[in-house]
Specification:
Helix content: 40-55%
Order of helices and strands: EEHHH
Strand order of the largest sheet: 1-2
Oligomer: single chain
Shape: extended
Strand content: 5-15%
Largest sheet: 2 strands, antiparallel
Number of helices: 3
Length: 124
């Protein structure tokens, strides 16, 4: 495992959750960067490097693989819930398109699975 950023110390970790607990990391929270384009480029480069490392984390363990395989069914099963939330904001043709894609998810069969990140985008 690579060492934490300079000036920080590893407090704890959980490999099964791919989680690290570190002391404070030097720097400024992203939401406080302002409009400086060079700083935002640096943030995106660092985020990209971290995401690349996550995608290279290796094979899923059996529990994670089961959850990943179940996620396609869960996404397909959730389509009706989201259609209900959308209400009349979708036309009948758009609703049918969502249902058709949900049906395709149920038939897709085995797909490559790996570790992924959540929403990797600024929240400012």
């Amino acid at each position: 495992m690579p060492s934490p950023p300079s000036g920080t110390h590893l407090i704890d970790s959980r490999a099964q959750d791919l989680a690290l607990l570190l002391t404070a990391v030097p720097g400024v929270p992203v939401k406080e960067l302002g409009p400086d384009a060079a700083k935002w480029r640096a943030v995106h480069q660092q985020a990209g490097a971290l995401c690349a490392r996550l995608h290279e984390a290796g094979e899923l363990d059996p529990t994670d693989r089961g959850q990943a395989e179940a996620s396609l069914k869960a996404a397909a099963d959730g389509a009706e819930k989201y259609l209900a939330r959308a209400g009349d904001r979708l036309t009948p043709d758009e609703q049918q398109l969502v249902r058709d894609h949900a049906a395709q998810l149920r038939r897709v069969g085995p797909v490559p699975a790996g570790y992924i990140h959540g929403g990797n985008r600024p929240t400012h």
